[in-house]
Amino acid sequence: SKSFDQSHKGRYMSGNKNNRGRQLRGIALLSVAVLLGVACGGDDGASTETEAPAESAAPSTDAPATTDGSDTSIPTENAGNRDGQTIKVGIVNNDALLPEIRTGAEVAIGAINADGGINGAQIEIVSCDADASPEGSINCANRLIEENVAIAYTGLDVASDAANPIYDEAGIPYITTNGWGPVQESNANSFILHAASGAFFVGPLQTFKDLGYTKVGMIFADNPAGKAYQSKIESYAEILGLDLTPVYVDATTPDWVTAVATLQADGVEAVSGILTEVDCIGLVSAAGSVGFTGAVFAGSCNVYLNVLPDLALGTYNQVDYWSPLSYDDAPAEIQARLDKYSADMTAAGHEDLINGFAPVSYGGWMELREILQAIPNDQEVNGETVKSTIVSQVFPGYFGPDLHCGEALWADSPSACHSTLAVFKIEKAADGKLVRKIVSDFADMAGLVN
């Protein structure tokens, strides 16, 4: 197997010894195709006014109350004064990876338009399907700029850092629900509506500490990003008083079984990593194969719950929003919003995507509705007014914590609008379905390590 530079303090596990990594990748991609479906077809560059889903439950016209009690209700003089106007917004997504994120955004915008839009204005979507390459992200940015969108919303685009300078120059704010790269994390023109990436590094470590574990393992891909993550996570582990053992796997063909077996032989009591959906399947499957009895933290993953339902029991997740999987533990106000989300998704023909990542973008657009409605009606909705408004006050979270976009809550991710996560354990409900049961309520991760 390939040798590893010991200065990185981690072991390297090659996947060339067997084809397990490739097999898991194939299983995961097949599962994504089956479980998540595909995004709506059509010309990627087309501008379309999104209609409301048929028989959608009518949303309230009142702004949702914030979780911290602040008043963000829309001024009365703003209601209905943009009648006849159209607001163009861009939606960029890697549809081949997670089409449901685009779907959640489109369903939300349809519901917003049906409820009167943005103070009377209808939202028009300019769509672009990025291909996970820098060139694809740049092409999408140029397309949105040509269409003169007010904001560029990205669902999932792992190469979107390449597009940030282009949006900067055009004065169009880059808005996403979760960050996809270090450039946007600290870019003054970027706004990450949900938790900073660093919060997701701290969540598993704090959980392991709360569970009474002291010797923990983290699995990283052997690439520049993995090595950068290791440095940060080791510093957080030290602050929390944990003994962390890092292990590296080949980024293309990871040997998860050998990685977990090595950590187990070292006496590690709990394991996690920087994990994609495919990686979560690999980690959880490997833990079952070697009989690992400690805690397994499978990031924020969803797909492995369907692919490996028996092995998923007892694993942990961290999420920065309430989802249908955690419905029973959610506050009544959030349950009502989840009911509306499920009704809208079902009416739009996407009932099969309800339990995936669609709530992320659906909730994000319900939050953006509040931001756009706060722009005074005597001002045009454009990049400048969106940017000045989003940092002007605390805006209500829809499925999760409130948005503090102007406060730079995380030192190395000032673009993030909060740094709060909740931790859940996977259990089986009375009907046999897997659910998330809350272990640790929403807590500010920044306060633990910064």
Overview of the structural elements:
This protein is of the alpha/beta class and 450 residues long. 36% of the residues lie in helices and 18% in strands. The strands form three sheets. A seven-stranded mixed sheet has the order 2-4-3-5-6-7-13, with helices on both faces. It has a five-stranded parallel sheet with strand order 1-9-8-10-11, with helices on both faces. Strand 14 (420-428) and strand 15 form a beta hairpin. Helix 2 packs parallel to helix 13 (358-373), helix 3 (134-146) runs parallel beside helix 4 (164-170) and helix 8 (256-265) crosses helix 9. The protein starts with 10 loop residues before the first strand and ends with a helix. Mean pLDDT is 85; it is low at 1-76.
Task: Describe this protein with a few key phrases.
15 helices; 450 residues; disordered N terminus; 18% strand; 7-stranded mixed beta sheet; single chain
What's a quick, concise take on this entry?
This protein is of the alpha/beta class. The protein has helices at residues 20-36, 99-114, 134-146, 164-170, 182-185, 197-210, 224-239, 256-265, 277-290, 303-307, 309-312, 332-347, 358-373, 383-390, 446-449, and strands at residues 11-13, 47-49, 86-93, 122-129, 151-154, 174-176, 190-195, 215-221, 243-249, 270-273, 295-296, 316-319, 416-418, 420-428, 434-444.
